[in-house]
Structures are given as structure tokens and as C-alpha cells.
Specification:
Length: 94
């Protein structure tokens, strides 16, 4: 399990969550590495967590989904746009 309060998926007093592996793929970036896709479950390991929208996707004939690719550009070893020291301002006014 993991501490769901660290991912804002649970309160601190009852923060246990469980990762249920549902698929394993070879990692193209690491020799002998694998990528494990998981669903978040409640501590009983059977009940899907409220944030686990994948658990019921097959039951919803009207469900839509899409893929999103993300890219990160680096310059001089830092993400593009980061200051030379520290971190950029928090997101919000974007």
C-alpha cells in the first residue's frame, strides 16, 4: 500500500491506499526495465478508490477518452524557462 494523504487521495487519519497492478509493459528507456500500470484501491484491495475512474470505464458505453503527450525541453541541464537557481513561480496566472 501507500500513504494516500501524500497524493491528496486520503485524509491523514485514514490514509491507506493500495496499488493494484493491471498491466506490465517493457520500458523502452531502461534495459530490463518495466512500466507497471496500476489502479488505486481502498485498503480492502477490492473496492476502487473514489479517484479510480478506470475501475468502471468498461461499464460505461458512453465513455470518451484520449491520449495526451507531454514534452519537456531542457537547456543547460534545466527545464527550459527555469531560472539559473531555484524554481519558477507557482502555476496559476498562466
Amino acid at each position: 500500500g501507500f500513504d494516500g494523504s501524500s497524493t491528496m487521495q486520503a485524509e491523514g487519519h485514514s490514509s491507506d491506499c493500495v496499488l493494484k497492478p493491471v498491466a506490465i509493459y517493457p520500458d523502452p528507456a531502461r534495459t530490463n526495465g518495466v512500466l507497471v500500470m496500476c489502479e488505486v484501491m481502498m485498503p480492502d484491495g477490492v473496492t476502487p478508490h473514489a479517484s479510480n475512474k478506470r475501475a468502471t470505464i468498461l461499464d460505461d458505453e458512453g465513455a470518451w477518452f484520449g491520449f495526451e503527450q507531454e514534452y519537456f525541453f531542457y537547456k543547460d541541464g534545466r527545464p527550459l524557462g527555469f531560472p539559473e537557481s531555484g524554481y519558477p513561480a507557482p502555476q496559476g496566472p498562466y
